[in-house]
Amino acid sequence: MKRVLTAIVMLLVCRCMYAQPEAVQNILLSHPQTKYANIGIYIRNTRTGEVIESYRPRNSIPPASVIKLLTTATALEIFGSGYRYPTTLEYSGYVQDSTLHGDLYIVGHGDPMLGCLKQGQGFLASWVKAVRNAGIKRIDGRIVADMSFFDGDALNPAWLWEDAGNYYAPGVFALSYMDNTMNILLRSSEPGSVAEVLRTVPEVPGMTFDNHIRCTKTEEDGAYVSGAPYHLHRHLTGSVPSNRGDFGVKGDLPNPGLLLAQHFTKSLRQAGIAVNNDADYISEAMLLPRHNIYTHLSDSLGAIVGQTNMHSVNLYAESMFRSFGQRISLPCTIRNAELVMRGFWRNRGIDLTSATVKDGCGLAPQDAVSAEAFVSLLEYMTHSQEYPAFYASLPVSGKSGTLRGFLDGTPLEGRVHAKSGTIAGTKNYAGYIELPDGQQWTFAILINSATGKMRNVQPVIEKYLLDVYRRNK
Fold first, then answer.
1. What's the DSSP call for residue 408?
2. Using CA atoms, how far apart are residues 107 and 105, in angstroms rounded to an integer?
């Protein structure tokens, strides 16, 4: 009898979890773009635990950029919002009569924002001052970028090769610089012609291109950049609008650490500190004894998380993810980062057994996480001391970041604090909904294998959320 009762209870639970709610049936499963999609939905009252809506919540679905919630929450919990990534200046050899007989190293530890647009290159003046303060007026060796804190897999093996070289999928190094991004300036002319490559910003010494970008009558930028990390050659394909004059296409920096070392070498020379040899880089650790002369600290992790979630910056998320690996061993590896992430949340009661995690930013097609797992994570964070930084990092519907155009002009404008995720066939949202009565819902809506353009799926999701809100507020 006891077994029969247990079976009945389990059956009722399963029916509750996998039944088709009216809004799902009438809106998502009736729309031509989403009716055949893989859908996972879970909406729960954060404080009471009441399930508001549930549809296949345990289906593992490609999360796209929503996986950044998992990455940034892990980073905040492990390191704390006040953590700052160090970048150190160290020298080998010895200093005698104001001359460094050895090399000066820039040692990276994963700061993803060094020299980014927000910061600029002003920090190089502080580095030059640090060299002076160390009594060094001449370097008979080189400036060397030491990127050995991360392993050599600058390009995640799980990413699509077609993404490699594009600005949204730059190589991930222990030394990032200028968002690991360059702007390739082209000259667009008559339709059918090949756009002329003028220069790159920043200038990358030795950079070459195999250029096949055509000027067409299209109004859209359809240009693509491809190439491997460390290699100073990029393949340019696709199209740009014709007769536009100078036209910019973004690509990745092949070796940001080397470019940083080159810029620092130039700054030292301009300041009257001679550097005998050209800049260089290393990606494997060297056991030479070194002396630390300066430590540069990044913005706070809370600020970096804010940029990551608000603007969905893949580089920042991936750098955070890689840095988790140091908890197991050095150099940091993708595999160790995954193990740390899984172990951390397993110890806190959040089961990622069914999840597939190949990166920290969501570019890997193999990534798969359930709506239930995201809701459990989000609910956990409401009890964390890092919740204020985490919550503040989320875009707000109709107001900010990647949700600026989401639910604007509706009763849910300004009430949804969430992360979005979009790739081909996938449109996802996960976060919090603030109700007028002070209650809060935690939600995840994951839709994969939708048809057509994903911008046309957004209104379907908006309609669904508004229906649920009106029925349950």
1. T
2. 6
State which CATH number among 3.40.640.10, 3.40.50.300, 3.40.50.1980, 3.50.80.20 fits the domain covering 84-151+256-295.
3.50.80.20
355-400 per-position pLDDT tens digit: 999 999 999 999 999 999 999 999 999 999 999 999 999 999 999 9
CA 27 to chain CA centroid, Å, is: 32
Question: Can you tell me the distance from the alpha carbon of 427 to that of 414, in angstroms, rounded to the nearest whole number?
Answer: 20
- The 10 Å Cβ neighbour count of residue 379 is 18
Residues contacting residue 352 through CB under 8 Å, at least 6 positions apart: 341, 342, 345, 346, 369, 373
Question: Which two three-digit tokens encode residue 384?
Answer: 């964390």
pTM of the model: 0.94
How many angstroms separate the CA atoms of 234 and 373, rounded?
39
Residue 119 pLDDT level (bands cut at 50, 70, 90): confident
- Residue 110, CA distances (Å) to 234, 318, 322, 333, 437 in order: 25, 10, 8, 12, 43
Q: What one-letter code names the amino acid at 230? A: Y
H-assigned helices in 347-401: 371-381, 387-392
Element holding 251 (H helix, E strand) = strand 245-252
pLDDT, tens digit (0-9, with 9 covering 90-100), for 287-312: 889 999 999 999 999 999 999 999 99
Contact (CB, 8 A) for 418 and 395 = yes
What distance in Å separates the CA atoms of residue 327 and residue 284, rounded to the nearest whole number? 19
Instruction: Give the C-alpha distances (Å, rounded to integers) separating 471 from 22, 54, 109, 417.
Output: 11, 15, 50, 20
Q: Where are the domains of the chain?
A: 21-80+303-472, 84-151+256-295, 178-252
Domain 21-80+303-472, classified CATH 3.30.230.10, yes or no: no
